[in-house]
Design a protein that fits this description.
With 526 residues, the chain is mainly alpha-helical. It contains 23 helices and 5 strands. A 5-stranded mixed β-sheet has the order 2-1-3-5-4, with helices on both faces. The protein is globular, with a radius of gyration of 25 Å.
């Protein structure tokens, strides 16, 4: 019950710290203390339902196997997970990042997601520094507070996949531009290079961030002689170094990525066989999550209002015009994704919520100066909106626009293994699963080898088709002598025809003797 009473008290105290005047205990109201408290508050929110909401599907199992083999078998990688298009891959950095964490926690996915959640929480500190650099210390604290309870960021802290760390690298990229343009920090070129390169490593489509150069270069063109050659060159080297695996892969695989990108550019404007998203649709969704999501239609009006207010502030506030222009460029850079018919998946928005948070912090800081009561009211509305979404969705894991298969939770997968092993009573058995991707055993091969073997001492036979080319090893047998178990993964995303094909095949071994539902899963015994 503690978690249901903790967050309102935490929020109340943070708000009081911001609103009250300094007294004899001035250290309590120092920026460092408030920031520390906000960071703890953000961590608490990210771990409220942990580990019951840890998502573990095919992508996670694949990454778990490959990332550990890099270090245990020396199987080095220069390309990462497959991207949406054939011939496109993300960088392998994510595997090198999580591999040691998997080994540290003896293969337990819970430890790795905790690591990802902590990485996301570090964004609180980055956002504070960003807000302080372009606006003021107070704006930085407000931005850090908004980031701490942002539903978007709470979801990315649950996002057990390669794009998740890109939240921080995107912030670093735009922070570099902010320091270069607003503070004349020449070394910021290094941040720009690393921020862009690491973002592309984690999620290839973030190559669209490079398009923001079109807007940024005119802002620094007059200073180009003052900047000199050294620091831009160091920025280029940092970009080259962070993208070096892509260059090696291009040489090894005959410039496959380049050819695929050229084909994508040539096919621009053609209809996609998949549902696609639009910039205004993505921004509307982001505004619903960040500002007011109680009404589904509110997102479009909020997104329109965002631009109107932002343009108004650009005209009126000459002192902060460059800072506001940077935020506008940040938001508009996501528009370039539309040229590639992006899917209707939430991670296409990644990074945009931080720009919105920084602009909200700017508005709220100005509101604080003139109407403290209204400031408190707006903070309260934002808090309630984000936490309403969090308490509604986060106990069940990532939202289904991040992962199609809703309910692939590790806690239920372990429960299924426990029930099957206990029913088998130490005897050998075979298992098959209705999986996504279809007929791929990767998820269950990892679970049986990591959890099942460690706890029960043996791994069952795989009773399904052994499709080559996918990670995960299990002994194969179609023996009719031993007990046979069938696992049906959550149905969302699996066509009914494939489900029928699977059950017809399994019923060839006999009708179910036992059938149990565990969360969104079903397992049967034959």
């Amino acid at each position: 019950m503690l978690k249901y009473f903790l967050w309102p008290r935490l929020d109340f105290l943070v708000l009081n710290l911001m609103l009250k005047k300094k007294n004899n205990f001035s250290w309590i109201f120092s920026a460092k203390f408030i920031l520390f408290f906000i960071f703890v508050f953000g961590l608490v929110l990210r771990f409220l339902w942990f580990p019951e909401n840890v998502y573990f599907g095919y992508d996670q199992a694949r990454d778990a196997i490959i990332s550990q083999e890099i270090f245990t078998k020396g199987d080095l990688k220069i390309i990462g997970p497959s991207a949406s298009g054939e011939g496109l891959n993300h960088g392998p950095l994510y595997w090198y990042l999580i591999g040691p964490v998997y080994l540290l926690f003896n293969g337990n996915p819970n430890g790795v997601l905790a690591f990802i959640s902590i990485i996301n929480a570090l964004g609180i500190l980055l956002v504070f520094f960003f807000g302080k650099s372009i606006f003021s210390e107070k704006a930085g604290l407000i931005a850090a507070f908004l980031y701490a309870f942002s539903f978007s960021q709470l979801q990315y802290s649950l996002y057990f996949a390669n794009p998740a760390p890109a939240v921080l690298s995107i912030i670093v990229y735009f922070l570099g531009w902010a320091l270069l343009i607003l503070k004349d920090k020449k070394w910021a070129w290094i941040l720009i290079g690393f921020g862009l390169g690491l973002s592309i490593q984690f999620e290839f489509f973030l190559i669209y961030l490079a398009a923001s150069l079109i807007f940024f270069l005119p802002l620094i063109w007059r200073k180009i002689r003052e900047i000199g050659f050294i620091f831009p060159f160091l920025g280029f080297l940092s970009l080259f170094f962070s993208l070096s695996t892509f260059f090696l892969a291009e040489l090894k695989y005959g410039f496959r990525i380049t050819k695929t990108l050229i084909n994508s550019i040539m096919s621009m404007g053609k209809s996609s066989p998949f549902a696609t998203s639009t910039f205004i649709g993505r921004l509307s969704e982001e505004m619903r999550f960040e500002v007011f999501g109680f009404n589904f239609k509110a997102g479009f009006f909020l997104a329109s209002g965002l631009f109107l207010i932002l343009f108004f502030c650009l005209i009126k506030d000459k002192e902060k015009r460059k800072a506001l222009g940077l935020i506008l460029i940040w938001i508009l850079s996501n528009l370039f994704v539309d040229f590639f018919n992006p899917p209707q998946l939430y991670y296409v928005n990644i990074g945009v919520s931080v720009a919105i948070i920084l602009f909200l912090a700017y508005l709220l800081e100005n509101l604080w100066r003139f109407q403290k009561l209204i400031f408190a009211l707006f903070i309260f509305v934002l808090l309630i909106n984000n936490l309403w979404h969090a308490f509604r969705f986060n106990p069940k894991g990532p939202i289904n626009t991040l992962y199609v298969q809703e309910g692939m939770l590790l806690v239920n997968e372990k429960k299924i293994l426990d029930e099957i092993y206990n029913d088998a009573k130490g005897k050998e058995f075979s298992v098959n699963a209705l999986t996504m991707p279809f007929k791929i055993k990767t998820t269950w091969a990892y679970l049986f080898n990591w959890y099942g073997k460690k706890k029960y001492g043996y791994v069952p036979y795989w009773g399904g088709e052994d499709v080559p080319g996918y990670p995960g090893i299990m002994p194969v047998s179609n023996s009719l002598k031993s007990a046979r178990y069938s696992i049906l993964e959550p149905a969302r995303g699996i066509p009914e025809s494939l489900k029928k094909e699977f059950l017809d095949s399994e019923n060839g071994y006999g009708k179910p003797l036992i059938e149990k539902k565990v969360g969104n899963f079903v397992w049967q015994k034959r």
